[in-house]
Batch of 4 targets.
Target 1
Amino acid sequence: MSTAGIQVPGDQTHGFLPERKADSPWVAAGKRLLRNRAGVIGLAGLSILLIAALGADWLAPFDPLAQHARDRLLPPGPVYWLGTDELGRDLLSRIIYGARISLSVGLISVVLGGAVGTVTGVVAGYWGKNLDAVIMRVWDTLLAFPTILLGVVLAAIMGPGVVTAAVAVGINNIPTFSRLTRAGVLAEKEKDYVTAARTLGASDWRIAFRHIFPNCIPPLLVQLALAMAFAALLEASLSFLGLGAQPPEPSWGSMLSKAQGFLRISPWFGIFPGLALAILLISLNFLSDALRDVLDPRRASLD
Amino acid sequence: MGKRLNRREFLLASSMFVVGAAGAACASPAAPAAPTKAPEAPKPAATAAPAAAGTTAPAAVGTSAPAAAATQAPAAVKKGGKLRYAVDADVLHLAPWVAIPQSHIFYTIYEALVKRDLKGNFTPGLAKSWQFSDGGKVITFALQEGVKFHSGKEFTAETIEPAFKYLEKEGSSYHQWMKDIVKYEVLGKLQVRLTLKQPMSPLLTFLDMAHIPDPSLDVKSLQSKGIGTGPFKVAEWRQGDTLRLVRNENYWRKDVPILAEIEAKVWPDRSAMLAALESGNCEVAFNPPFQDMPRLSKNANLVVATVPAMCLDVKMNVTNKPYDSKKVRQGIAWAIDRQRFVDTYLFGFGDVWTTPLPKGTIGYAPDLEGRIGFDLNKAKQLIAAGGFPNGFDSTVMIGPDSRAPGMPTMAEILQADLKKIGVNLKIEAVEATVCSNRWNEGKYEMSIHSYGRLKEPGEVVQAMVWRKENPEQFRSAEYDKLIDDGMAAADEKTKQDTYHRLFEVMLDESFCIPVAAVPRTIAYSKSLKNFDWSADGYIRADGMWLDK
């Protein structure tokens, strides 16, 4: 069966104008992203943190857990570039390793929220009726719970930890992804290419996931970057409350929580983890802004 | 998010942000220039208090407050004035029989039969004098004359029994020992005789804490109105915000209180509380964080003081592997870097403990010092001798820092040190009630714990810490006998010997290992004169006055 002639991102078949070597929509979007200033800044910030997270074992000057009893609460200096914490641990090394926790919580929660959210969103949007009502009401109920409360409840059930924080944030992400996907599916399923596919005998599953879903991806990508930022912030909040990463794991949130009591005597203890978190959040927000710009056909055409 | 930043805007904004942050990080001249050096804090004068072990009353475990008060130049007492008193947590209720973090307020509203001073001596409170008889089983009190409750009701021998019944109720902090008072006899208007089930050696220590409420009121009224006989009475209480106390004009002691009013205000944020103190918006700040104490002690307008209030210890459940081995437990006792904890968490404002109770308490003897300490090689050898030459994996359960200050920090220090000798410790932080339940049910491997009431062993035993059915699940006939003998000891010599032996057993068995004394802290303005507090670190405001 063929879908020739239908412009589907991700589908390399271009029935019209076969002689023109056009970029695929994704490649074109990627090129536009690299021309977008906010996008480049976002990508650069994120890349730095990604490199820090992946290369922490080589980049960190000290073991992030090593306590240097004699060097407690040192200000930034030649040995400890960003200073030390109350147990004499190197702050730079802890921040570098902390990137791992923040990014992995972001990733796990987005994968969890994204997977469950998009599948249920497509199902609710395409099949609709009672199924739609049930799925959406369940997510409405879930939305009624503040995320921190959800985190506290999960920590009580599963015990505090990074996985708990990731799952809490992931569950929190589900309704947003689901609603966004459903909205996209509702708009797309009335379009001609869907009728065409149906006429050609495509099954519902094929139409929903192979034809409609790829057209709903752009807004999801924007949401993905935002959700990552939100997840990192939430992990920090949960760790701040002692429900996320457990000592001695170097999470930015728990570092901020500890630093709270030392702000008057050693402000760098709180400032640097806070800056790292700010850089991650700003980068992801810039990236999501840029993605929205380059993936939106109306805006893209203005470039 | 809708508006795109142009390059100039972004660069300006981001550079301002980075410069601001870096500026803030570097503009801290207060950075500890030589953090390797212990802060020059007025060391809690534990050694200044005369060690009176073996005398009729154990010495208080020391405080820097009396020294500070003594050095103040005498000035003419100024009557009146409002003392603004900052506390770091809410006053939950005003019923004196359930201890709360803000129980220190009770010392201004209520009084007890006896009063214990900072040197550990018992002085008359609502009782003028007292006498033991029948081998310590009977105690007769002669009460003060002319004492009235804030309600106007007279305090007499008839008051004692119904007032003590409140303290005896289930849920009362004194329930454990109050129920051992089996008979109350009124011998005259101001004379009462109490008979105990068996002699109770720490009775006077307990009675010092047993504040007497007006028994004609119901529980609810006492919880909200706080009617006692104390030098101050409750004028207004807005829970979560302010407790306003005014002078009790009918107070039985002459010429006190001197202050006209005390306003206790709740500052849940301790940094804000200290800012209020430093800017002159209050005269007393209760419980300032240790990390701020070195800074506060350098402030020419303030006095800082500490009194040892809590002991931190490491518990091990002796029914669990590998802690069923005494050698392993002794190994752990040698792996605790107590000095680092005192330097790191207490900023030097505390003392290393290697005996179950400190110098000055009954049962303490210098020969007990040095039986445990910090030596990782020795720890490793002992753990190997206990059958674990390659170390082992274990979990340490801790409660939140708010419940027992220092637990998380101690856990991290212990974890890092034990790792060096092959013991991998996982820290499990649980909620406060979960922590208590699991202690009581013995569902833990190792835990960090803290307890107050450090004046004599009998108190700690009654506070359910060193009891026979202890959370460490350590059971021994000798231990049980020593606990019983210590509680019932009729004379000081027997008590001293019994508790000395108890300490020896505890150190040898190492199921509950002392770490450090965590003091109660206070900072107050130099305009506050004649500052006084109890051995528990609770303020006694009757003699205080403001020079301004």
Target 2
Amino acid sequence: MAVWGERLAGVRGVLLDISGVLFDSCEGGGVPIPGSVEAVARLKQSQLKVRFCTNESQKSRGKLVGLLQRLGFDISEGEVTSPAPAACQILKERGLRPHLLVHDDILSEFDKIDTSNPNCVLIADAGDAFSYKNMNKAFQVLMELENPVLISLGKGRYYKETLGLMLDVGAYMKALEYACGVEAEVVGKPSPEFFKNALQVLGVEAHQAIMIGDDIVGDVGGAQRCGMRALQVRTGKFRPSDEHHPEVKADGYVDNLAEAVDLLLQQVDK
Amino acid sequence: MAARRALKAVLVDLNGTLHIEDAAVPGAQEALKRLRGSSVIVRFVTNTTKESKQDLLERLKKLEFDISEDEIFTSLTAARSLVEQKQVRPMLLVDDRALPDFKGIQTNDPNAVVIGLAPEHFHYQILNQAFRLLLDGAPLIAIHKARYYKRKDGLALGPGPFVTALEYATDTKAIVVGKPEKTFFLEALRGTGCEPEEAVMIGDDCRDDVGGAQNAGMLGVLVKTGKYRAADEEKINPPPYLTCESFPHAVDHILQHLL
């Protein structure tokens, strides 16, 4: 067992990233990461509180949970914190009518949002919908606004699909920021509000919680800045250079979620 | 700043300086002849991401300018020469019309990315391919980083936003090869045997032409044609060496004061 395992003492709640930790997505579905289905089950049987905290913005929460259940995971919609519902709340509070640059699979999350005569742009992981034409349309909407507002569901650089690494919404967010001279408002990890909201629902304090993710900046760095501990798994988008990241150092690096859960449960049993 | 020496080379911008779209600046052909009558070397330098040298040359010939292909140095030329120097095989995200300027360059099994203005290539799958090459350590060479440009149907995204997207995703910086980069001006002088202190640049873009050239050690002359707008000369510090009405006036100044 890793020496740093002692740093897990006092953990009462666990936030789990989904993509790259539970499964790797691919065209039309996904593949569970070996050991992760059982690891989630063991975690939920323990006395630790568990919540899923994802930046998934290509599919609705319902579609994501449905897929995970088909892959064998014990998970329900109410256990997932994801950026689209959080964004909808912000849109309503501020009277914002978004032009949506998003994937068709997440449109249902915005069913109750007025999108006529847009006064902001909302960008999510649109996948193939990130065409020049669609990017240009979002750009033109922003350029015509007196006070351009750009809302981005997460700002990840890339994520892993079975075919390889794919550009994430952050890259396209940066493109629009650069083109229009604006700064996006990020809803999702690593924004502190997003983590705090997940902790609140979980009912634990930041210092009692640990985040497990495959993104050294978005998951690990973001959680640590909120006062949580964080582990990086060597699955999903993990790259060996992450362990020597110039700014972020995880509280521990584990081969996969199964190893993380082993270590956590050993601490709990002490 | 190094001591100024006798003038040996004149760099001239094309669109906005010698001609505006398909019309020559009045008196420009004749002024170019007078300049050539002196002993200076003349080079034509331009930021283009879609017009090959051949396209540029045809337009200039139509406007009756006496210019040969080897006198033209463009941002595409600069990208090509960087590709050659680095001995890399680029994935070319450039407009099809620019491809002739990369003739003979190996592009199979790419280990570099060259990016210009290429809306037809700026979509998810192609950008993912470029992104994966960059993560594997391929250099990113940008023709320029313009934010947007004007089309008949309104503003449209330039290459800059897509370069920025790739830079962010891979935590790297692109090598930008066009004006106003210092290396662009130095490369344009290569083969002339001249030092920057022996050269002057004439152009209508205060930042990219004049500011860029002056940063490289040349004199910069701003002409009030093309994209020039009132008070542009106040945009850079130090200010342009000279601001004058048009290319023929710039030539007169050079012939009278700099030779």
Target 3
Amino acid sequence: MNNIIVAKDLTYGYERDTVVLKDINLKINKGEMIALTGKNGSGKTTLSKHFNGLLKPTKGTILVDGIDTREETVDRIALKVGYVFQNPDHQIFNDTVYKEAAFGPENQGLEGEELRKRVVHALEAVGLLEYENIYPYSLSKGQRQRLSIASVIAMNSEAIVLDEPTTGLDHRESLEIMELLKELNSEGITIIFITHDMNLVAKYGQRMIVLSQGEIIADDSPRNIFKMKKVIERAHLRVPLITELAQELEMFRDAPLDPQEFFQGLCEMRRDYANVLTS
Amino acid sequence: MSSPVSYISRDSIIHDLHPLTKMIASLWFLTLGIILNKPVYLAAILALILVCGFAASISREIFKSLKSITVFAFIIFLIQIIFYRSGEVAFYIIPGANLLPATLEGINFGISIALRMMIILLSFVILLSTTQVRDMMMVLVEKLKIPYDYAFMFVTALRFIPTFLGEVAKIQEAQRTRGYKVDGINPIKKIYSYVPIALPLVMMSLSKGELLALAMETRAYGIQNRRTYLKEWRMGRMDLILIIGMFLLIVLSIRLV
Amino acid sequence: MKEKIKLEGVSFKYSRRESPAIKDICFSLKSGEFVLLTGPAGAGKSTFANCLNGVIPHFQKGEMGGNIYLEGVNTKDLSTGKIATKVGSVFQDPEGQIICAQVDEEIAYGLENLGLPPRVIAERIDEVLHLVGIEDLRNRATNTLSGGQKQRVATAAVLAMEPKVLILDEPTSELDPQGTEQVIQLLHRLNREKNIAILLIEQKVEDAAPYADRLVVLREGEIIREGAPAQVLMELSSQREVGIEIPQFVNLAKLMDAKKSIPLDILQAKTMVRNYLRGWEI
């Protein structure tokens, strides 16, 4: 079974007259790192909550690792797909970092040596092991966000969904979180992150899904999607400034995603230009 | 959105009335509902309330709440006729076996009680949908000399209810994905199992409270002894007419009883 | 230019903390100036802001050193109410800083506290709703607004008190790109059209830097760099451990070894690239 998530004609509406998600068809393979984007109210959080059974489709189906979410409880599905909410302070309640990370696996019935091993592994992965006996609220916001990631890792999920994991963090903390996700991904964990930050999408998204008014309007690599002017406009996204610069200059065949790429392209152009002049 | 009865912003004569007039009117309807007991009179009062709802141009919303209130009133009516034993039997609720007799008096009484319920509930629905809580509070501060700080605290608490409900929903969702369940029948265990919800909420509330204090402080809270209000309500001619009218009708209805 | 606010060797240590949050800060905000303040989490940015809006020394418990002057008067000698009429504050949490249930009430709140006559309050509400461009929100319940709308309402509520200085503590941190742009554009306009001095604390340096006259970088409670945004960012781009966002155009300029002008917006960047291709000095 290679797909972690398969959505088929998924429709979701809070009430009869408002449909929040419309006919979503989506396959996510194990081991992918996906950026889920779209403006506020486009349905990205609602869709992501279907990935671990927090919400169930009103029509259509969603299979998580082959299991229909309507036939299982959230805590069972959470074994497959973990969810990290935007604000870590919505879940922290224990008096030590260790206990906080142990809450999920304990609820799964783990205890003793095995529990300890899992929690230590999770805290190590996010770089918080040295703080295991510390009061969680004395950590910085970025560290608290990493703690909430650790408490999901400790549940041994195959995939992790993160709702705007870098919101409210400073630049360095944001990059730390993203590097952590990249590392988890390289260990085989599927990562799905919601974000507005196109610089992060360009840097960390292998695949990008764009939602607008409850529908998927693009599903491709960031590089390709940044070229789709209509999609970008419809979803109210803004491509990275460097990409926009390249597009406005109309000199690049393939719009670069970061300053380094831009500069390389520019050097080649200048060389070609010089060659033309000398020949 | 946040509560079943909340202020509906419209332009209407009822909205423009002094909050005090509307508060008196609600009490007036309540009093009439209690002292009158003939279904005909009560029905007339109910009709008057519906006219008020219409005048407030919230008839659609009123009919919506009327629907659920009617169901409620009907249940009360049924209970009354089942338990009302004295008087002439009109019919049996289970006819074949002559079980559960309904008496004429019981029916009469049941209708009155049901109508009373509807009068009291609907009049408060109209009061709350046409008058903002802060306006009622301001009236209490100005006319009944309740200290401003207490009134302000109350209004602000109401303002934060939807915020906190939203926070609770988010916290519950977050804990649910970590396999959290409220367990067992054991009451002590049950209380303990609310900690994962309660603690984050308390921490959030503390920081929200701190920020609110900061926001108030930087907006000159409490620097003047005499604070003004954006909306200063004055008793208009309409208010006086209504209050006098209501007074006369009360006197009349006492004669009727 | 006239100095609106001046900090002279200001330090502040929160009670029950071991080390001070800010140390020996010297800073001034001039009339009509737009200053961008950034720095990593825990650098003391909020403490800095609270020194400018009177929360320190009047409200926050702790030990303060040095002097803070507002239009030449030591803020120790001014009441918070008095300071509030001169310095407006907007905070990070869009929801938590809104006091009232309805937008017009929220804007009226500060004015009511000042004891202004209702007629004047009503006029001011009209003015600021227009100024901020949110006339359509007047009768909305505040808890139904989006984050960007809430921040603009909060700004309007502060503007109604007609301050000459606005202090904004990470107002866009919980907003999406659209909300962020709306807020930053609004600040830019207020600064240009109304000559309001602005101190904007912001992580999103790339979005805000083009509009700032000056960039101040705070780290571990101290000002480590201060000056024209492009120059400061260029200097910092070669340092790995500063922990602030370096705009992509600045990084590009560094790769291209630009000396003359460092671009912050797309127009400047275009000029730089064109000149570079022409082999001109950049």
Target 4
Amino acid sequence: MIHTEELLPEVREVERIIVRFAGDSGDGMQLTGDRFTSASALFGNDLATLPEFPAEIRAPAGTLAGVSAFQVHISDHDITTPGDAPNVLVTMNPAAMMAELPRLESGGTIIVNTDAFNERNLAKAGYEANPLEDGSLDGYSVITAPMTDLTKQVCKDLGVKPRDAERSKNFFALGLVSWLFSRPTDPSLHWIREKFAGRDAVIAANEAAFKAGHAFGETAELSASRLAVRPARFEPGTYTNINGNTALSWGLVAASQKAGIPIFLGSYPITPASDILHELAKHKNFGVRTLQAEDEIAAIGAALGASYGGHLGVTTTSGPGLALKGETLGLAVSLELPLVVIDIQRGGPSTGLPTKTEAADLLMAHYGRHGEAPLPIVSANSPSDCFRAAYEAVRIAVRYRTPVILLSDGYLANGTEPWRLPSVEDLPDISVDFASVANALNEDGEEVFWPYIRNDDLARPWAVPGTEGLMHRIGGIEKEDGTGNISYDPENHGRMVAIRDERIKKVADSYPPTVVEGDAEADVVIVGWGSTWGAITSAMGRMRRAGRKVARVHLTNLCPLPNDLGGILRQYDHVIVPEMNLGQLSKILRAEYLVDAKSICKVEGQPFTAAELHHKFQETTQ
Amino acid sequence: MTDAGVTTKKDWTSDQEVRWCPGCGDYSILTAMQLLMPELGTRREDTVFVSGIGCAARFPYYMNTYGLHAIHGRSPAIATGLAMARRDLDVWVVGGDGDMLSIGGNHLIHALRRNVDLTILLFNNQIYGLTKGQYSPTSEVGKVTKSTPMGSLDTPFNPISVALGAEASFVARTHDMDRAHMQEIFRRAHDHRGAAIVEVYQNCNVFNDGAFAALTKKDARAEMLIPLEHGKPVRFGPDGERGVILDDGVARIVSVAEVGVDALHVHDETAADLSVAFALSRLADDRESPTPIGVYCAVDRLEYGGGIDAQIAAAQADRGPGDLEELLHSLPTWEVT
């Protein structure tokens, strides 16, 4: 039961609001945004978030490089993206104003911490004149508050030192914004007390700052700006607000429980994947073993070693790490052992944009190994969908005895949305059968175990050490079909290459029919994958409301592609593929199906906005 | 676990034809291992040999146990995952000097410092055999090979020093000409809890023949091999006439007659401070000087997989076994009706 404030008469109700918090990376903007989001989630809004922060831990204070921002889109109806242009921009310093103002909708609201707009900070941000004074903000609705000073004042009586008090100014901003948008205050106050338990001075300062911000809104004649977003209508159920990396971690835990084998995670820290290592390391009571390995290669090697021993081997990384894992992936393909490899994609090549999103590792996932080394690829659509995607990756890995690559990205990893909790009982059965008995007769008619005898799925037996009578030797050298002994025979190699290929193709036989959404009589189909799901959904909604007939397919199994996909695509005059790369999926669709797939590309470290996608759809389908 | 039962060398020998060059030192190491196994009291199905790439790395194919012939240099990492996941297994890692100290050097040192329960056999022949004769990270300076026609410039690794520098808890050296010594050292390494590494001087009769002959041929051993025996003064020579003293932390070879037996260093393989073991490893910097063999150190410290299992047990005792419903509800939730 969530207690909420009654809406006051002067509050104007709106369907949705996009708020962007921006400040120096030391200003606590991620925390402020996160708290505002949580209060909104508990209030029952639908929401989507987009945290954006610099790669540096502490970029020089007050500079454009150090600006950290958090965008949240809250709504009373179903939304799928963190929104395009913010309606409200909270700026804690001039650099944030300089960097973020261009995003704000025209006529939008700006909330400013005036204390930070001194000469030095203005100069660091590149302002020649103070934008608060030179009329450049005319046309915007500007709310100014001396947040730093007011926070210091309320903290003074509490005996908090001015420098410590200054750190609480983000809670002043949170209080003010909570008042403006009629957020319940209890969750934030409760959170402050829990988070800083045992540090009474910090609790007191943060609470005082939060309440001062709230009171500032109430008393400073800001009522004209006050807005409210009613709770959204959700399907009945229990909800939680979750980000992609957490959902993915839980999906792995769920799959491990259902498969009946413990997780072994080998991982080397890398942005934006490290949080999965952190999350799984917390869940040792599920029998989870985590190894922070010496490097990316050891991380996947240890995971593969654990898989060989009958555990659920998992490794997590981002693009540069996946490049390093290529050789071991080839071994896993050859050994035909289950292994889940998670790539939280980021801007590349090389170090690229570590904290920004991109989806340009699809071709590496497909082809980034020497030799003919096919493996299944799964992707996630939204933060909460990472749970399903992780479960699906494990399902395929254990059933088909194959490494599987799961592609998520930086936007999904850190973005959040409300998630209706799945029923544990209804999760599909993915239990594992280990080999226990001999499966062949040798020349002398004796029962023996051959590791490369296959079942109907063409999967080989998973015979783990410790099993009596099944001792066998396997490795990366080509194996004789059936016995698994070393074989350099040319025909055998050709046969094994074909079998490995066929085995991966057979994974598609286990997919449900592909879902085509939209208009039955459409002449255009939008084919997407990964985190573009939300922006495509919104953009497509705009097209259909404007009377354009359009259909869409969002792929979650990227290799092998669904058996029915070619037939579906050929029904349309236009096949449009929006991607956060230079057209990697469209290249594959063209090669596989000879359809004239057209790319819409964006490789700027930012997700598509619904507006730009809508615009591009119109251009492309004219 | 059922009784290991009585087995013989034949039970531990796979049906695969051994394909090392005739005369290779690997044969005698394989025989030593196959003869030793029945004495260890372990079961074949609980035994795994993991290897990388190289001549030595073919070893798993010839043992009738579980075997994983992986990729170049990665065997310590792969074996780490296996040994952490399955502490009920005996995990052996076999590789050469190129595999373990060059491409896989990073994995080796980290497996050693973590003290994962592995028995690592490093076959050191000071040459690349499988790629047909390039110098290796243990080749002597000036080595003329196909890739170093004017002699190699690289200072070699001393594998014992590397292992000690990597905080290994068990470090030993043996050689392929003495089956009894190999078996004794392999047994000790096997019985050690944690990461054990054994450097085996191994002859490559095709590309580096006689590399260790000055040390290991029968009539040279007494003069050239310094046996390390726990609790005993370190001395050698046909009549024990030479010995080792520690002189301000540096190990030196002396005449026993000159210094007296009481001045000799008494070997303590259990010393937690590895600096003396390190000093012993620096006694010889070429293959023509007397060299210690045997167990340099055997220190008892936390075995990694056991540490992980203890954390899992503590988490389960504290929070109960994992409950999926509880996990899904662990962040703030709200009901929609």
